[in-house]
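Late entry, evening session. Most of the bench is empty. Finally got around to the prediction I had been postponing all week. Sequence below, unchanged from the version circulated by S.P.
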Amino acid sequence: MHKFLPILAVLAFLLFSTQALFDTSRNWVEIENFRQIQEVISTSDHLVSLFFYNTYDCSKCQQSEMTIDRFSDDLVGLVKFYHIDCDKIWDEVDMQERFPICNPRNIKELPQLVFYSPPAVRMNENGNPNQPKEHVYTGEVSVKAISKYAKEILPSFRDIIKNQNELTNFLNYKEIPNKVILFTDREETPTLFRGLTAQYKDKLHVT
């Protein structure tokens, strides 16, 4: 396995050299309206983390936010992190039904952490967009528990090669000329490699 360490080192560099996409002082972005939420979850190729909280009347929100901040440090580059202050965005009446968690009547349910994993293919055979999958986190509020959960649902846009014929077809595929191959005897795809497949989706053909 040691002979593959240089490959993984290069992949790590490629993945984490893209951090200009994030705010330079923090790993999360504050969303200011419902339409931004809709755009984020419908266009991202990464796992998206939405942290819903309320500035006022939510004693648990501040403590949980500190945990979420440390969680974002743990998986920076692998997950896109967004914070939503429900108190600021609830006035947008025409979008309220989509995110009832922000209804002031539901303040006792805050804070809430929701993940959205992107579809493997954006459009279905009928030409309609495939929807991301929603994952409402209900586990322990700790960095370790949340990180473990997020890693389990990270998207993986890669093929699995099982024989020489499939390898030949993969190498001959011209539509995406740039290719990355991970040789491994493990059944589970490494977390870093899954992050790479999301970061360079449609730019690298990964297997």
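Two things to note before I forget:
The longest strand covers residues 47-53.
The mean pLDDT is 78.
Will write this up properly tomorrow.
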